[in-house]
Amino acid sequence: MIVTLAGGVGAARFLEGVVQVVPPETITVIVNTGDDITLHGLYISPDVDIVTYTLAGIVEPVNGWGIAGDSTNTLGMLKQLGADTWFLLGDRDLAVHIRRTELMRAGHTLAEIADDFRRALGVASQVLPMCNEPVSTHIETDAGLMHFEHFLVQRHAQDRVLGVQFVGAEAARPAPGVLEAIRDAEAILIAPSNPIVSVGTILAVPGVQAAIAATPAPVVAVSPIVGGAAIKGPAAPMLTALGYEVSAYGVARCYAGLIDAMVIDTVDADLADGIRALGIEVVITNTIMRGLAEKRALAQAALDAAHQVVTK
Ligand code: FO1
Q1: Is the CB of 42 under 6 A from ligand 1?
Q2: pLDDT tens digits, residue range 23-75?
Q3: Using a 6 Å cutoff on CB, does residue 49 contact ligand 1?
Q4: What are phi and psi of 129, to 5 degrees?
Q5: Is the CB of 47 under 6 A from ligand 1?
């Protein structure tokens, strides 16, 4: 079994490659739920949905979130009724949030619902939320403490980042199957997601970090920072706020002691020696995923790195 720790869009694109190189049913994706948010009375789980829609082949391809070709009639009507509609929710996407909220009220867990939905949408890989308890990533900024989605989407990441809080994480427990998947994995791949607020949130669930440190499986991370900038999203100000440099080396420092190898982009080849000095093997390749061939090649490079660690 191949285990991937995943955030949203970057992880989902990487996973499109992983399912090309290993049988999809042998993949378990452990997904960040720190971005989860309740809007219009509905429970929304952006990263779980992004991963599920992408693997189901229905994601909106340009943004990488939402459903391709979705309409926005419901949101339009909500707006007319005075609702705050800063978070764009399409009609078919809303159906997912309605059904999830209904099932949660009936006592089902996030993990059970994620499993139901991925099966209903024809996804062969396991999609496992990191925990069933509510955890919400909050960003400390010069404009105050705010939920991650308020920071990113409502306020366009305009505020200065001072720190990050994973509200509820101490009381959370890894969802059933998370620790077992990490223990029994053939390889653990950390997707090119934000190391602070996507992967960092998963690692903040008590027991997850220790399980990764203890697993005999090789652990390989793909750097989401290329040429000193994030491929997507607000990783740069977050790394800076927490004292890491905005580079593949900074990402390696986040993961030092936890990973065996890291895949970095060819433009960052000069950082390899510094990363190796942290005790991390380095594989240098193209990490920008434009088409399916590049996604597949990146997934293969990460798996090859895992194999190299094992056979070394
Ligand atoms: N990102 C945006 O930048 N603007 C949006 O309006 C927005 C809506 C949205 C709806 C459903 C969903 O699953 C994701 C959505 N995202 C949107 C993406 C999301 O904010 C982030 O990219 C992830 O949370 C980061 O992993």
Answers
A1: no
A2: 999 999 999 999 999 999 999 999 999 999 999 999 999 999 999 999 999 99
A3: yes
A4: -60, 150
A5: yes
The reported pLDDT for the residue numbered 84 is: 97
What is the rounded distance in angstroms from the CA atom of residue 39 to the CA atom of residue 36? 10
250 lines ligand 1 (CB under 6 A): no
**Strand 187-190 relative to strand 225-226: parallel, antiparallel, unpaired?**
unpaired
Q: Look-up: residue for tokens 């191949």? A: 2
CA distance 166 to 162: 14
Instruction: Compute, in angstroms, the gap from residue 271 CA to the centroid of ligand 1.
Output: 32
Question: 91-109, pLDDT tens digit by residue?
Answer: 999 999 999 999 999 999 9
70 lines ligand 1 (CB under 6 A): no
**Cα distance between residue 23 and residue 120, in whole Å:** 19
Query: Are the CB atoms for 287 and 192 separated by under 8 Å?
Result: yes
* pLDDT computed for residue 310 by the predictor: 85
Q: What are 50's two structure tokens?
A: 């992004």
Distance (angstroms) between ligand 1 centre and the Cα of 153 equals: 7
Query: Closest ligand 1 atom, CA of 86?
Result: 6
CA distances from 128 to 27, 87, 285 (A): 11, 24, 29
| Radius of gyration of the chain, Cα coordinates, nearest whole angstrom | 18
Q: Is the CB of 46 under 6 A from ligand 1?
A: yes
Residue 312 has pLDDT above 80, yes or no: no
Task: From 65, 86, 197, give the residue whose CB has the most ligand 1 atoms within 8 Å, as the site to mutate.
Answer: 65
Per-residue pLDDT band at 182 (split at 50, 70, 90):
very high
At 7-28, the pLDDT tens digits run: 999 999 999 999 999 999 999 9
- Global confidence as pTM: 0.98
Closest atom of ligand 1 to CA, residue 7? 26
Q: What percent of the chain has pLDDT over 70?
A: 100
Calpha distance 111→8 (Å, rounded)? 17
65 Cα to the center of ligand 1, angstroms: 6
